[in-house]
Input
Amino acid sequence: MEVIKTVERMQAFSLKNRAQDKSIGFVPTMGALHQGHLELVKQAVGENDTVVCSIFVNPIQFNNLNDLKKYPRTLDKDLQLLSSVGCNTVFAPDVDEMYPEPVTKTYDFGMLDKVMEGRYRSGHFNGVAIVVKKLFDFVLPHSAYFGQKDFQQLAIIRELVKMENLDLNIVACPTIREADGLAMSSRNVRLTEEQRQHAPLIYRALKKASELYKTKPVQEVRDFVADTINQNPQMRLEYFEICHSRSLQFIGKSKPEEPVVACIAVHMGEVRLIDNIFLKL
Ligand code: PAF
Output
């Protein structure tokens, strides 16, 4: 396993691979890896000559200091897991290496970063876009792999690639779930046993919403999910939105022909969980 800590060595590694005509697949992560990450890595390993995974807990995408402090950090275990699925190059810089200068850049993604996560986590997507652009510049991938669980993040990254004219392929991979339906997330380990038992309700509500959407008015679907989540004493709904899958514009009364996605964020104690489901493909 090669763990690269500096930008200089990372770029040298990638330039050498590119010079040998090897395709580079890239999986950016913040560590605390779970099966969801490993599925991204497996797909990248199957589709590229070389795969790089980054592990960097990006401070500038956290709008809540407590969340940053409590974010799980499990580097040794992560390295073992990565090598078990065939990824032997990890970029794990420290904060000074990624941010030698104060960050001043601001992206404007229009609607995409104003709604849902953008509304409740101010500055989050700017922090994501800045770090992802830097990581792309350092790793120089041909393809980068992202999970659909972070649906809005995926939309922002596609837009970033367009805005910055980047020559790389963004690969969206399906959400990986526990046997009871809970979307895998590094934050799940912070749920208490009791919260963990209740957490699958989020996906059950989304599945029911996708059934209701076929026959019922949009508002009825919204009300059903809000009531289901808020009636659970362990949960507090932050948002549930039904929107166009590309523009993330909310759906009004009439149901469009284009793909529609429902996105949700729920607080369970100190932990905030997100998930989504396509209501129409
Ligand atoms: O999805 C994540 O884990 C992070 O937002 C990312 C893309 C690695 C940027 O820090």
Summary: The chain has two domains: 2-173, 186-279. Strands lie at 2-4, 24-29, 50-55, 89-91, 143-147, 169-173, 236-244, 260-268, 271-280.
